[in-house]
Every structure is written in structure tokens, then in C-alpha cells.
Write a structure and sequence with these properties.
The chain has 71 residues and is mainly α. Helices cover 72% and strands 11% of the residues. The protein is built from two helices and two strands, in the order H-E-E-H. It has a two-stranded antiparallel ribbon with strand order 1-2. The longest helix is centred in the N-terminal third of the chain and has 43 residues. The N and C termini lie far apart (93 Å).
């Protein structure tokens, strides 16, 4: 029984580290999913973030539609 009493704290440590690793991985994957979905939504609205900062794109308008609106 003395061998078990010596290994018990080590086993408990590995179990606790495994639980924390799983929780950390879950948080990491959720954060990446949220970031990807946010980037896709911003790209749909013609926003993009680069090293230079945030860039706002202008939606492309067809010349015919532009002429109709300005007349």
C-alpha cells in the first residue's frame, strides 16, 4: 500500500492537469470560432482588419444603377 500512497498525488496531479488542458482547449476553439465568424460577417459588410488598421470598402455599384439614382 505504500507504493499507492506515493503515486496517488502524481495521479491526482495528472488528472487535474488533464481537466485544465481540456477546458483550455475548449475555450481556445470557441474563441477561434467566434473570431472566424466575426471576420466573415465583417467581410460581408465590407470591413476588413489588417496590420494598418480597419479598412472600409465601398460596395460596388453598377453604372446603370448609379445613373438611375442620380437622375
Amino acid at each position: 500500500m505504500s507504493a499507492f500512497s506515493k503515486l496517488a498525488p502524481l495521479v491526482i496531479l495528472f488528472v487535474v492537469l488533464g481537466i485544465f488542458a481540456f477546458i483550455g482547449y475548449a475555450i481556445y476553439t470557441i474563441a477561434n470560432d467566434v473570431a472566424d465568424k466575426t471576420a466573415q460577417k465583417m467581410e460581408n459588410r465590407h470591413f476588413s482588419i489588417s496590420k494598418d488598421g480597419m479598412v472600409v470598402g465601398v460596395k460596388e455599384k453598377k453604372e446603370e444603377r448609379y445613373v438611375d439614382q442620380t437622375q
